[in-house]
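Project standup — Tuesday

K.O.: blocked on the structure for the chain from last sprint. Re-posting the sequence here as requested.
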Amino acid sequence: MRNFSPSGCLIAVIGVWLILSTAAIAGIALIGAPPNTRAVMLMGASLVAVWVILGGTVQRLIRDPLRVFLRIVRVDPRIQFVVLATGLALIEEAVTTALTNLAPLFGVPYGSAYITASGNYFDVVGLHSVVAFVPMFIAWALILQRYEFTPGAVFLLFGLTGLSAETGFSGLQALPEFGLWIFVYGLMVYLPAQAFPAGRGARKPPGWLYPLAVFLPTVFAVPVAVVVGILHPIRIHFPVIPPGS
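H.V.: unblocked you, prediction finished:
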């Protein structure tokens, strides 16, 4: 994301849009949105503040020291990538689950507004989200073993993977929130991508690999998602939020 790379510039533009649109949404929520809707909107704004702004700043600060440390430990970069990405996904879901459980702080009873499938952290990560993210991370580790994508490109491509996943889960209503989902998912893999050093002899990725890299992680996740869906078919543990509530 340094030296004004195309991916870095695009991330910056999306980031500015995300902050401005989040501020507008928070303002609308506070001015006159119905209670449950307002709570969901404020939970989303809080996620941007904690995970994107605070978390993204921390990632930028520790990026270079982490890169040095990863070279010292001499563990297979593929393992480093998967472990780090899984750890970051667990942190992100800790933030979202905490916000769901803080519904009373946003002015509504617990379960009336939510941004996770459950208020139980272990249910969320083990039966809804991170359990399916791990094979996605494995897919990217295998890609990065052979092809030299920049961390910024990995951020954007996995962000698009996340956007497509959220669209598949909640419908086209997720598309206007593209900035949120690109950053939520992109920040899971940006630091881990530092495990693969530039100039390591990997191939330059051909053009056709970019769109494939968006959808290949989902292919890796499908078998896990199917098994989890059979064992745990409940998609959301809360009642549906009525329109206009």
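K.O.: great, moving the ticket to review. The mean pLDDT is 94. Helices lie at 6-32, 35-73, 77-101, 121-127, 130-146, 151-170, 178-189, 209-231.
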